[in-house]
Every structure is written in C-alpha cells, then in structure tokens.
C-alpha cells in the first residue's frame, strides 16, 4: 500500500505506522517521564509508560468544532497511560526557532485540558458513572445533551477507554499531553507545559515508498513536489 499526503497530518500518520518512528517516540517519552519521576523519588527499576508495541492509536479524533472541544492530531492508549497528542513541523507558527521553543495557542491548550478533565473524571475518579451532560467547572465546559452527535462521540470514546483498561491495559494511572515535532534540522527545542516533547528528525529518504508533497515557499506561490 502506498500513501500520498503532505504536512504534519501525513507525517503524523507515518509516525503511527512506521515501527522505527514509534520506537523513537516511545524511547524519548519514557526517558523524560523517568527523569521526572526520579526527581520526585529515585526509582530502581523505571516503569515503561509508552509501550509502542502494545498501544491503541486514534488518528485525528474529532470532538466537535467551533465552541466544542475540537480535533486532536492523535491519541495513544498504552498500558496504564493515555497520551493526548499534538503534532507540529518545524515551520509551524507555534515553533519559535530563535527561542528554540514551542508555544501552543490558548485554544490548543484548552482543548487538551477539557478532554483531560473528562477522561480523568469518567475513567479514573468515577469509573462506574454513566456519561451525562455534566458541567466541568475547572475548564468551564459542559458535555452537550444526549441527543447530540458529540455526546454520542464522547460516550463511545469513554466506553472504549474503559473497555481497554479493564480488559487489556490494566488500571488507567495517568493522562499525559504529548507534543510531537517533525523536523529536518538538528536544533533541540523545549515545549510549553505540561506537554512532553518528542522530536523526530526526518529526511525525504525516510518517506521512501510513499508519496509526500513538499510545500516549497516561493515568491508568489507554493510549489508542490512529489517525493
């Protein structure tokens, strides 16, 4: 099967499909979480939090538009952990090359905070409570009425999480925010809190076998080039 695509959406899909990229992401995230945990209390045998070979991946799951939660680039279910994902390329406006820092917009952060709160409430605090049109004061968000498509989407998503963590992944312990950066340079970046940053350096050769559109900025227009 050959894929055609461009931009961060296509790179995100490749990252979820390519085993070597999944391994790279997992290693970076596990190392960072272990460092954070070691600061809190030294651990003799670090826990593997993101297991690339035992995960369930959601690609671009949408939870409404406009004043609703919005769309995520990806979500990963891993034994014990959930990762809410955001993807960027090093030419995204959120990537500040001079400061070597990635700062997401207020809307992007709010989207993550809202879904984090919903998952935490229904999958960690109140595992047996039915999903309802609940108002979450902390993030100023109310789940819509039962008759809406978005309510049904949220319910299906929560039911699927509960099912996976009760049957396959063991108890859900934590929900993390993951920022995935695709870059062609060797520049090291930092990310806004509370996002864990995984950096994937890639070249056109890495995408060989699939078709990737390079968007090259010209004076008046962008030129499309198939790799």
Summarize the model shown.
This protein is an alpha/beta fold and 227 residues long.
Helix and strand pattern: EHHEEEEEEEHEEHEEEEE
* Structural class category: alpha/beta
Please work out how many helical segments DSSP would assign.
Answer: 4
Oligomer: single chain
- List the domain count as a whole number: 1
Question: Fraction of residues in helices?
Answer: 25-40%
Shape: globular
Question: How are strands sequenced across the largest beta sheet?
Answer: 2-5-6-11-13
Number of strand elements: 15
- Euclidean distance between termini CA atoms: 16 Å
Q: What can be said about the biggest beta sheet?
A: 5 strands, mixed
Instruction: Provide the gyration radius in Å.
Output: 19 Å
Low-pLDDT residue intervals, each spanning 5 or more residues: 41-46, 216-227
What does this structure look like?
With 227 residues, the chain is of the alpha/beta class. It has four helices and 15 strands. The protein has helices at 7-17, 19-40, 106-125, 149-167; strands at residues 4-6, 56-59, 62-63, 70-71, 74-78, 81-89, 95-96, 101-102, 135-136, 141-142, 174-183, 190-191, 195-201, 211-217, 222-226. The strands form five sheets. Strands 2-5-6-11-13 form a five-stranded mixed beta sheet. It has a three-stranded mixed beta sheet with strand order 1-14-15. Strands 7-8-12 form a three-stranded mixed beta sheet, with no helix packed on it. A hairpin with a 4-residue loop joins strand 7 (95-96) and strand 8 (101-102). Helix 1 packs across helix 2 (19-40). The longest helix has 22 residues, at 19-40. The protein is globular, with a radius of gyration of 19 Å.
